[in-house]
Structures are given as C-alpha cells and as structure tokens.
Amino acid sequence: MKKTWWKESVVYQVYWRSFYDSNGDGIGDLEGLLLKLHYIKDLGADVIWLNPMYQSPDKDNGYDISDYYGVMEKAGDMQTVERLISEVHNLGMKIIMDLVVNHTSDQHPWFLESRSSKDNPKRDWYIWKDAKDGKEPNNWRSYFAPSPWTLEEKTGQYYFHSFAAEQPDLNWENREVREEIYRIMRFWLDKGIDGFRMDVINLLAKQKDYRDAANPYDLSYLGNNPGIHEYLQEMNHEVLKHYDIMTVGEIPFVTPEDGLLYVGEDRNELHTLFHFQVADDMPSWDMLRYKEIQKQWYEGLKGKGWNSQFLNNHDHTRQVTRYGNDGEYRVESAKLLGTLVHTMPGTPYIFQGEEIGMTGVCFENISDYRDIAMKNKYNELVRRGEDPVQVLKDLQPLSRDNSRTPVQWDDSKNAGFTSGISWIKVNPNYKEINVKRELETPDSVFHYYKKLIALRKENEVMVYGDYADHSDGQEELYIYTRSLGEVTWLIVLNQSERTNVVKLPEIAHGTGKELLLGNYAEIPVGDSAEKLVMHPYEARIYRILNKR
Ligand code: TEU
Ligand code: CA
Question: How many Å lie between the centroid of ligand 1 and the Cα of residue 371?
Fold first, then answer.
C-alpha cells in the first residue's frame, strides 16, 4: 500500500458546540476550540475533524446549511475560522471540515427560490414530485421523519428530504448544482483546510423511479444509487485531486464490496470511508459479529483501499457506555476499546471526551433532549398512542445526545465548559470524570490514549501491518496479530467482567514477548509461554520477539 499521511494519522473529532464555550452564552465555539488546541496537540492527534460551523438555522446542529460561505454566529466568524486554520497548522496538525451537500436548510436562498414557483430557475435544484393518489409520491420513510416528502401548498408538489423536512435534498442531476458545490469546496480548500468529512455522501444519487419499497423501514433505498460514482469521480476530477488533502466519506448501507467502489485507490473517488456495519448491526457489543465485520472489511480492502476505525461519534452513543462497561470497569473498559480502535487496520478516530472515558446520559425528561432525530421519533410514537414514559425509555440508549453533552473539563460548575447556561445539560458525573483529573492521574484513560497514539507514530506495523484473527469463535476474547516484515505484534483483549485464561496462538509460543502497553498495572501472574491470565477488561499489546 502506498504510504500517505492520512493513513498514519489519528483524527480527533471536535463537536464544537459541546467542546468549550469562550463567551458564556452556553454554546461551545471556535474561539473555545482555539483556547484548547494545545490539549488536542498534547494528546498527540494529527488531524482535527470539525463538525459543521456554516451559517444555519441549526435545526439539526449545523447539518442544515443556509449559507456555505458563511459562519454560524454561535460558532464565530470567518476571521476566527481563518485563525483556527493557521493555529492548527502552526501546531503541526491538520484540519478537515464537514461537507454537507446532500441537502441544505429549507431556509437556504436556493430553496426559498425553488419553492416559490414551478417555473423558478432554481426549481430543479431540489427534487419535486406530484402527489400520487392524493398522497405522498411513495411509501418511503426518511431518517428523521415518517415520510421523506413534504407538501408545498403553494405549488401543490412535494419536495424530497432524506432527513428532516427542514433539510431538503439537492438535485445532483442538475449540473448547476454540482458546479456550485465544487465552487464551495474550492473556496474552503483555498482557505487552507486539509480535507473533508463528507456527510452521507453516498446519498447524492437517487433512485430514478421512486418506486414503493417492500420494507420502507430499511432505508437502504436512499443510498448507493446509479450515478453516485459518476458524481464522485467528477468531484474528484474537478476539485479533490488538485489538493493534498484527505477525504472521508460517511457511507451508510455499504458492505466491503461496494465500499471498495468508493475508496479503491484506482477509482479516483475518496480516500477512506465510515461504514456503519458495526453501528447498525450492534446496538450493544457482539464479539462474533464484530470480528466478522472486521475480517470482511480487511479482506475486502486489503491492498486496494483504506478503512476508518471508530466506535462512536456525535451520532452514536459513547462507546464505553454502549460497548463497554461504564460502571465498575469504566477506566479499564475505556482503555480496552481505545486499544481495539487504534490497533485495527485503518485510520483511528477519537470523538471528543472519549479520551477521558466520558459516558452516555439518561435525562429524565424529553424536554432535556435536543436531538431532532430523537424528538421527531418521540412525537411520532406518542402521537400514534404509545406510552410516553415507555417511548422515552426505549429511545434513551441510542439517543444522539448521549455523545453530545459538554466536554467535562474540571469539577467546577458546568464542568468548566461554560460560565453561562449550557445549551444541553452537563453529564452529572463530571465531578469524577473530567480532563483536569485525567491529566493529574498518571494511569488515566487520557494518558493511556496518549501512549496508544505515540505507539502508532513510532511503529509502522500499527498502520501498515497485516491483520490476522487468532480467536475465531471466542465470545469474550479477541486475540489478533498485526505484522509487517520481521515485526509481529500480538493484541489480546478480554472483553468481559470475568478473569479469563487466554490460550495463545502458536505464533507466540516458545518465543519471548515484550509488553508494549497494557491497561493493568500489576505484573501478570500465572502467565506462561502458552497462556495468559487476563483480568476483567484487560487489554495488552505485545511485540513478539523473533526466535533466534
Ligand atoms: O448522519 C447520517 C446518519 O444519520 C447516518 O450516517 C447514521 O449515523 C448511520 O446510518 C448509522 O445508522 C449525518 C450526520 O452525521 C448527522 O449528524 C446528521 O444529522 C445527518 O447526516 C444529516 O445531515
Ligand atoms: Ca459561546
């Protein structure tokens, strides 16, 4: 595989509105990020992914853009963005921004024009259809609404939205739309940013006939439709290939086979992707499924394309809560999951707060939640007659707000995030879990992450090494190797609350092993050349010493 900086990097995701508030209005901002840049640098991250900060009515936390050339007032202004880009570069890091071009806000001037009349020149910039039998044009659902069709009374037609009604989808078939988007991309790249995280980029092309779906709840009809690869190749040709950048596509509903069509190195589309097989198939931890997914992606992309590794982000419940143990073994478990993400093949992502083992939340009231996806779903079910208490309970575990509470900086009021009233409640556990304490504690989650990242910088095997699973069929243990040339690393994880005896694969027998990193302090007892005794949620990374 060709060596590139974005394969070797660790990306740190900044959900700025919950990162740090510099002016006391209760909302994190870019100035706040500037104030804390050294913290990210100290952790060792190479690239910052900044969630959308463009002008927006903010119905979906910035994913509904009303001006791609403007900056949301809550976030800051253009000057601050420019300062941010240059400060990040001064610190030797890079910054990529969200590109949200499947849809705009319904307040974008393009849409205001488009909806105004059937013969408006911008009518065709969005997707308009006539009613079918006096109803929506088909039986589909949208991500955030019971139907992806909303009626515009004035012109009697429905417009299409894969997400909320406030997020109408652009019509990518229209050449003017594409050209305008490329202009926007060049505008930001020319400001010096280092790439894009591309929001639901495989949704750009739509099914031609909008036929009814057999199962409307399986939203996969929204993505990977004919024409998508032509758009991405055009985008690459027009814009991307002219810059030294990284691109990561958010690509739901893909298997490795079609994933490769997006990131194959010979395809001239994107560099890497987020697929959602883990997130979609695993509401909670499922070791066998996880191994299978990793194996398929490894084999599918090997030598041809590059993967990303993550277990949470701003849309998915914090990993230690969802996939680990956020009670008794929170610290061990947070470190284990970090070990996993950073030793799997692909570029690892850290979502802000993950590096201190932040946990999900369980607010008492629906009014404490802010997430449009959750609120719309709640309203739909309650309106349908379901019990509000039960609905809330069902929606809590995977609510996107689980990961959106403010970063816990210290044990002062509002966890030191804001001097004002936070836009979303702070997790009540901030007195125990916060950055200040993590920095002061030598064996904290933070310091462990720091070591993990440093290891990646010093050891190419972590980036380019071949992967092999030696624990097929085991439900609590994950034992795998990464190897590059003469170097072999062995990673052993005990993803359970029990002490487990681990039988080592033959490759580790009769040779020495050097423990490079582990999440327990004591020297292991009971270990031998053939087996290890592993504590609950214990994780170890070994270098296998070659037989002489
Ligand atoms: O998310 C799209 C989205 O909901 C899916 O990718 C989902 O996470 C995946 O299919 C797994 O089930 C993006 C943004 O990340 C999100 O915050 C926005 O609300 C959404 O697009 C609309 O722009
Ligand atoms: Ca602020």
Answer: 12
